Amino acid sequence: MSDERTLDLLEAKIQELRELNKVEGLDLSAEITKLEKKLAKMRTELYANLADWERVRIARNTKRPYALDYIAEIFSGFYELHGDRMSGDDRALLTGLSELDGEKVAVIAQQKGRDPAENKERYFGMVRPQGYRKAIRMMRLAERFGFPIISLIDTPGAYPGLESEENNIGGAIAASINSMIEVSVPTIAVIIGEGGSGGAVAIGAADRLLMLENAICSVISPEGAAAILGKSKERVKEAAAALKLTAPDLLDLGVIDEVIPEPLGGAHKDLQQTASALKESIIRNLGELSQASTDSLLASRFERYRNVGRYSILSG
Amino acid sequence: MPIFKDKQYFRVNLEKEADEALWLRCKSCGELVFKRRVRENNNICPNCGEYFFLTARERVESLIDEETFEDVSKPIVADDPLGFQDEKPYPQRLEEAQEKTGLPSAIILASAKIEQMPVVLGVMEFQFIGGSMGSVMGEQICHGMEEAIRRRCAFILVSSSGGARMQEGAFALLQMVKTTAVRARLAEERLPFISVMTYPTTGGVQASIASLGDIIIAEKGAMIGFAGRRVIKETIAEELPKNFQTDTFAIEHGMIDRVVKREDLRSELATVLRFFQEGRDE
Prior knowledge:
The complex is a heterodimer.
Chain A: H1 4-21, H2 29-48, H3 52-60, H4 67-74, E1 76-81, E2 93-100, E3 103-110, H5 116-122, H6 129-145, E4 149-155, H7 162-166, H8 169-182, E5 187-196, H9 197-201, E6 208-212, E7 216-218, H10 222-228, H11 236-242, H12 247-252, E8 258-260, H13 271-291, H14 294-306, E9 311-313
Helix pairs in contact in A: 1-2, 4-13, 6-8, 10-11
Chain B: E1 23-25, E2 32-34, H1 35-40, H2 56-63, E3 70-71, E4 76-78, H3 90-101, E5 107-114, E6 117-124, H4 135-151, E7 154-161, H5 169-188, E8 193-201, H6 203-206, E9 215-219, H7 229-236, H8 247-252, E10 258-260, H9 262-277
Parallel strand pairs in B: 6-7, 7-8, 8-9, 9-10
Antiparallel strand pairs in B: 1-2, 3-5, 5-6
Helix pairs in contact in B: 4-5
């Protein structure tokens, strides 16, 4: 079974042949066409039946587009607003004002780093209490001026560390969920990469919950689940499958509303294509939500979350 | 697949004692102590003052007025929506937890009185899969708050939980939102919610409903926090202070209102309830 690296190698080889093909007297077109067909076939086979663990790897792929990449493609401008007005400015959770299709919106976005320096600044996308407090600030601002909220989720989880605990990370997440529930403007959350546990839910309690095709959302990382169960780290693949964390799984379970398609191989293969599908979906969902009165918006949101869960009713 | 399908759903009976032993050995002082004396003493060792672990049943008994217990839980049991299996299937894990605790789920939900004041009281059972919050616990907590609204009384939640129940995946995660949504209704109704954090109150429970109390009281000896020591060590290898995530840590960092000894918990709850009840037009 070929993996993504084999495909990348083959693609590079084809590119070399294309270069050689430009040399006069060499005609490699037939060869190139043959290899291109082969590559397409291999790619389809690899991604058609992606194992859950493969999706986890795509969701975490460092080449994957991050929030700011989509923001640049989808919104007109992003006027970033910094700081929680209390203790700092979390660089793993960004907030700002923007326009989408001519409509003013408030954006809340989790952002990972591209290189070691940026990752140091952004804590690998792990949000600290000041990040959630900044998000709450943004929700209040959005409510005051009637801007819908678009939240882009991409975090391995809230930052687990002494600093976080000293500043009550759990309390900050709880307060953020509470604000999401109470805010009287339409809210759309999109999981674009990793939806890691409470750190994702904090800004995910929206009227619509969308997911990119290769994004994941889980109560615990597959590594964490494997560790709790006393299994060796090699058993993470099993854990990934057991947790039902992929977008198609979560759509089947009725947890999310929509899966936004990605190009074969993942969003990083074609940012524009992914961004345009994402944009279409957000605009369409926002259009639907904007039809409702504030009262019915809040009532539907309450019903949605009041009824979430699976259990059996017994008579006795 | 519902668990207990062929069994009669049982209401919680406070009189039922699972363990018939007459004597207990205190882990702290090593003395053999007469179990009835320990029970009568709030599960505190009469010899050295060490706290024995309280089951949810014992916790309820220690807090409420005698003969006022009424099980108001919904007759529901867990499903296995993911078909989750690790070294044993989730339904088997549930059944074992039910056998061990004599409870249908990880929470007892009761209507009762504390010093003659009516309350709806939810108490988590840590011995039931770590008191983890899945769909059933989320539903019972919501049902409890709605019951408090119907009865125009306060809601008290005593947490003892490792967090969201892994075996129920995203459904467990979303119970954080569900309980928060209903908690907002309780607030609209101006009915008090007292959150009591005991050993341990962590993860998705601490990061949602337990942290949203009008008043948050921690029992002395509680453990309070979001991420466990193991996770923190594995992720960032940070040295942690000795009192990390203890009651003193939580109060020093402004996470809770008060730390209360087990033997004083009932009277403290009564004090708070009385304050909120007096002068309220009903």
